[in-house]
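Hi everyone, sorry if this is the wrong subforum. Our group has a chain we'd like a structural model of before ordering constructs, and none of us has done structure prediction before. Sequence below.
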Amino acid sequence: MKNAIKILVLVLVPSLGLAQQRLPDSTFNALKNATTDSMRYRANLQAYFYFEEINRDSALAYNAKTILLAQKNNKKLLVARDLASKAYQLTTQGRYAEALNNLFAAFALAGDPKNASNSWFITPQSTPEKARLLILSLVHHMFSVLMDRTENKEQQIFQLKEAIRIALQINNSLRIMLADMNLGAAYVSLDKIDSALIFENEAKAIALKTGQEKYLGYMIGVSGDIALKKGDKAKAKQFYYEGVRASVEQNNLTSLTRNYLKLTNFYLAEKQKDSSLYFAAKMLTTLRTIGPNTSQQLNIGIAYQNLYASYKLKKQQDSAYKYAGLAVAATDSIYKKRIESLAQFQNLSFKEQLCWQALEKEKAAYQSSVRAYALLTGLGVLLVIALILYRNNRQKHKANNVLENTLIDLRSTQTQLIQSEKMASLGELTAGIAHEIQNPLNFVNNFSEVNKDLLTEMKEEIDKGNLEEIRAIANDIIDNEEKISHHGKRADAIVKGMLQHSQVGSGTKEPTNINALADECMRLAYHGLRAKDKSFNSEMVSHLDETLPLVNVIPQDMVRVMLNLFNNAFYAVNQKRKTTDTAYKPEVSVSTSTENGHVVIKVKDNGVGIPDAIKEKIMQPFFTTKPTGEGTGLGLSLTYDMVVKGHGGTIAVASKEGEGSEFTISLHIN
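Answer:
Right subforum, don't worry. Here is the predicted structure as tokens:
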């Protein structure tokens, strides 16, 4: 979970937008009515800050406009600031090499004292040199974000301390507070608790003194991390709850998701399944409110993993497997992109690394005319570069191994989920099978009792020597034995069908009576639901073509297909029954026919129907309209695969919301 927490930490930067996708009227009007480049720059900058956290693509689009306007008017200091902002956005998207190149350019511009006056925002209270140092501090801060993402803690901490040192020169409390806040979190990850406590307390003190409380919820959450590291679980939990409250008050959704994650992890460790599930769900809901971007996709994957762990703790396997599958889908491609981006970052040329070190040297020369180590600069540059490249390479391999193992585990869980779905209906239909098998067993038992009485009577007639009566009794016994044999075979067929359904393999195709299969599956599904809900009743209607030929299919696969469709049909009419008046009569029907060399099977219900908005999604893996815990979202997906991929057939759905649905399967006769 450390990596998950770190990802959430990284998205905390100087500004956060509200969780909406539409620009405020004031910003929109400013963009529309701007008549000068200065006004256009300010308006586009406002738009960038608005979208900074909630929509990375929009933020980058407005950032590109500010860069063009600043370059057009030779405002080099503003170009430096905008390049740093661009680097931050690229970092959150995992585009590390591009981010580093933009930071190189930003350092070159902000580090040059000659660019101090190149800004539209110079005021008597903010001299040109103060403005330059402010932006230089910002660039260092953004560089620390990149270093953290590329697993370089030493450089992250160094850059944050540089940001603080420069901010202290101009007494900028915001930049000091933000760097202190992130330093505290960095030291927590290194288990340097005393240092973490000093920086985080200083950040909180500045926030409370200056009223800059936007990130107070995040700082309180880090205090909870510190308390947990010290073994004070009660204090840690208290801090996390306080962090949630402060984040809500400040409408800081990013720090809110972090505190929800902390509480989820806390309760998972304590094996308090209900609380862990509650906060995992809250985290997912909040992330979806923030809006789509690469960072949020990865965080949503983390939320899915926590929901999986919580449901697993509650022993709700269907829901656990569902969220395991969603976690795979959400994180697989993201992890691959991150690994590729780390590789690109490591492969940056020696020349680019050397340029950055040269810029650091120029900045140091400007700030202090004489440095004791001036003669060793060249050797120091080479050593630093070698160390950075060595450490980054080692961290990259370590991260790759962790990510690869995570993906293997999730894929294994996904495989188990698919097999579990294939077996799930067997457990659900136990009661239906028991009901079906009871009838032939009753016949067997009853005729056995009758035969016992007849044999006793026959013995008496033998003693009397009444041959005619003996023959009549013998004929009755033979008839009864034929009935016993018939119903015994019926019970045997039901058991074999059940065993076929439970088989793991796909089996081989064989001529199959589709009518018998459809009729039996409908009754099994009906009695399976009746076993769970005694109040449920439904009309079952069959229109089966008696001339239907045998069809070459895999019997156990077609059993699963039929059961899935009938289960859904009975579920739909039962849901409608619960929400409509007593005049409603649930009905599920099945029909078979032959059309143009195909066998056509139709399963129809008059249930709740399927909304048009989701009709195209119902056969996608893990998509379900059922409440959490009642379905995995794999039933129709596997049905589609077995019909289309396994048998070369087609499956279509026609539905009207509130009126019912009809699924049509078409299979080649030959």
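For your construct planning: The chain is about 70% helix and 5% strand. Residues 1-20, 347-354, 369-375 have pLDDT under 50 and may be disordered.
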